[in-house]
Amino acid sequence: MQRNYFTLYHTAMELHERLAGGFVFEIHSQQKNELTLSFVTAAGDHLQVVMVLRRPELCLFTKEGMNRRKRQSANLLHTICEREVTGVAMSPYDREILVGLSGGDTLVLRLFSASANAFLVSEGIITDACTARNDLVGKIYREKDNHLAQDIIRELELLAQNKQLFSSRIGRAAGPDNQDSFNFLPGFDRTMLRALAERAGGNDDPDNLFNAFRDIFYELLDPLPQTGRTPEGKPLFSILHPPLPESVTCSSMLEGLNRYSSAIWGWLHTAEALGGLETTLRQQLRKIEKELQGYDPEILAENATRYETCGHLLMGALYLERTSPDSVTVPDLFNPGRQDITITLKPNISLSDNAAEYFRKASKTRGKCAAMAQRRTELEKRKTVLESLSTELVSLVTPKSVKQFIEANQAKLRGTGIPSPKTASGPSSRFRTVKLSPSVTLYIGKNAKNNEQLTFAFAKPDDIWLHARGSAGSHCVLKGATMQQKEEIRKAAEFAARHSAAQHSELVPVMYTLKKYVRRSKKLPPGQVIVEREKVILVQPAKNDE
C-alpha cells in the first residue's frame, strides 16, 4: 500500500507540517531511478524526500540531515533552489503531492509507479521536469480533465454515508471477486479491493459489501501505519487496522514508509544477489551436463582398438609392395576368410613408420579415455555440489541468511568454478556488515581484537565511529555517510545499541563522532579508546541484523 492514494494523502499532511515555511535546498539524482529533494524546514533542520522511480515495491521515504549533491550527480530543477515552501497538499484527483512555492509555482511529485516524476508548474504550464523533460516542458498541466474530475475522498465519503447510493453503484456486479465491478471506488487499488472482498465474506450481499466498505473507508481516514513480513520474508506495509504478520506499528506515516523502504530495499538487494547466484549456478549445471552428455568412453575404446589393429596389420604386411602412397590393402590376419582391409597411410613415411604412428594413436586414445573417466568423476561431484547449493538457495529469504550462505560456502563455490560474490570478499568480510542504503554501509566489530582492527586499520579518518555509551559493546564504523545524514546515523546507532551490553534496554545512548577523533592509549587494553568531540543519540536497539 506504499503507493496508495490514502498513504500519500497522509504523507502530504505530515510533509506540510515539516516543510511549510521552509525552503528548497537542492534537487538531484545520485542513484539510478532515485530523485532526492532536499529541503530546509521552518525549524532549520535538513530533510530529504527521496522518490523512487520504476520500482513498484518502493515509492517515497525521507531522511533526516543534509546530503549534498556529489560531483557526478545530476543537478535538477535548479531554478527553484532557495524558494520558500508555502505548503504541501495532496491532489484531490490522483496520486500527486503538490508542493506550493513562493511566487505561485507548484512542484508536482507524481507518484505513479510507471511514470513517477517531479516537475515544475507555472501558471498551468509545465516549465521544467526531472525526467522526460523534452516531452513535458511547454505542455498544459491538468490535475484531471474537467469532465472526469472526481474528488476521491469526497466521492468515497458520499458512498460511505449513503447505503442506497452505494448499492445502486454496484449495479449488476457478479460478486466481490469481480474487481471490475468496483471501479466506481476511486483511490481503491487491488490490495484494498482484495481487503474489501475478504471483509465482505466473499459474497455479493449488498449489506456486507457496504459495511465492509464503510469500515475500510473510515480506517483510511484514521490510518494505522504498520510494517510486517510474509512467511517468505518479504516486507509488507499497510495503513489498515488489521495487524500484518510480524506487525510493527509506527507512530507516523513517514516513519512507516521509512521503515518499510529500508526493509524492502534490503529484501530487493537480497533477491538480486540470489538471482545472480542462481543464474550462475544454472549456467554451471548446464555446462557440466552438456559436457557429460558428450562423454562416450565406448567410442574412444573402439577407436583405440581399431588403431592398434591397423598397426599390427601394417607390421604383418611389410613385405607388400605399396601401389598407392595414401593407402594399402592388407589381408585381415585376425579374421581369416574375411574381406581385405584398406588402411589409410601418411604418404611421406614407410609402412613401419605408419604402423608406429597407429600404435601411438592407440596409446594416446587410451590415455584420453582414462583422463575423461577421471574428468567425469570430477564433473559428477561438482554437479552434486551445485545441485545441493541450488536447493539450499531456495530457502534463503533475508539479507543475513544470504550473507551467511555465501560466507559458509566460499570454498564450495570456488571449487565448482564460481567466483566468490563481492559481498563475501575483500577485507571488509572480517567484520559484520549491514547495508543501510545503496551507498552507505555499517561495519561492526566482533570482539576486542576485531574492534581494534576495525577502528585503527580499516576505518578512514572521516568515517563515522559509533559505540554504545557507558556499556561494553562492538565498535561500529559508518562508511558513505556524513555527520549531516541524521537518518543513516540513527539507523547505525540502533545496530550499535543492539551489539552492546545494553541491547535489552528500552532506550540506549549511543555516541558518535568522526573516526579521527578516536585514539588509543598505552594504558588501555585492546578495544578500549579515548573519544573526543562526540555527540549522543538515544535509540531503541535494532531487533535483528537486517
UniProtKB/TrEMBL annotation:
InterPro entries: NFACT_RNA-bd, RQC_Subunit_NEMF
Domain of life: Bacteria
Domain NFACT RNA-binding: start-end pairs: 436-531
GO CC aspect terms: RQC complex
A molecular function (GO) term: ribosomal large subunit binding
Any one Pfam family match given in the protein's UniProt record, by short name: NFACT_N
Protein name: NFACT RNA-binding domain-containing protein
Source species: Chlorobium limicola
